[in-house]
Specification:
Elements lengths: L5 E2 L14 H35 L4 H5 L7 H31 L7 E8 L2 E7 L7 E4 L1 E5 L4 E7 L4 E5 L3 E6 L5 E5 L5 E6 L12 E7 L1 H12 L8 H9 L27 E2 L4 E2 L2 H9 L1 H4 L12 H11 L4
Parallel strand pairs: 1-10, 2-6, 5-11
Antiparallel strand pairs: 2-3, 3-4, 6-9, 7-8, 10-11, 12-13
The chain binds copper (II) ion.
Length: about 325
Amino acid sequence: MGAAFSLAWPMTYLKTYGPRANPITGLTWGLMDLSLAVIAIITVLVVAGVWVRRERRSRPVFADLLVGREAGGLRWIWIGLGLTIVALVASLAWTVAVMAAVGMPGGQPALTLEITGHQWWWEVRYVGATPNQTFVTANEIHVPTGRPVLVKLNGADVIHSFWIPALAGKTDAIPGRTNLTWLQADRAGVYRGQCTEYCGVQHANMAAFVTADPPAVFEAWRAGQLRASVPAASPGKQLFVQRCGACHTVRGGEAGGVVGPDLTHLMSRRTLAAGTVPNTPDGLSGWISNPQALKPGARMPATDLSGPELGQVVAYLETLT
Ligand SMILES: [Cu+2]
């Protein structure tokens, strides 16, 4: 949180920040430069060819009517063929080398995440050595800088695709199978991502964020997330358990639903509903009173809380730090 460097907007894939993405960026620019060079060379040759023809106009007319094999003409074909083969084989070799380099992390991953695409948000499970070292959060992923992170992707309902452009290319999240990818951020900051496989009406409002922090800062965040949230009994807590607990979990409380995001440390997130609403008191009240107004079709129904009840629930949620 609060990192000075932010790629939250716009998303970029032409400038990347880690060994999972950098080789691909180099290849992209390299192939682009090669293509531009080919266009430039061919343009020059075509223009030169036109000029050469013009000069020949000055010769007697019948000379142009003769169909002959001018000396050295075929040589151009061989040169062109040779250059094309060299360029294509070099592109192929470079592509294969990049694929090998980014296929799997170089070292042992520092962290394993199980990320599940839901209509229309991301469930993020931090897999610990033991179950009590494991926790679940949503949409905002924290990672240590300079360390490879293994990501196991699944889809809960339809096919989604996980994409953090500045850190890692696209990998599909498919129901019933686990796809592996990985990422590594070499620079601290916030990187925005987006679901990139059309998955229904709110596909566009299905962002993900990766916050990369130095390892010590990340460990502090992780220790905070591992804590349960056990706020004192309050009317808001009671209402939450009754009205929201069937869909949401707050670890340490009585609410254990798994239909929606885990809200144990809701206040550690900057946005709500996969980047749709800022996580401010107003944003929170607006979302809870009428999610359908902000994200039509979202799998959270409008809650018919009265004004005072809404205030109590929001006050309770604000204790989930
Ligand atoms: Cu989608």
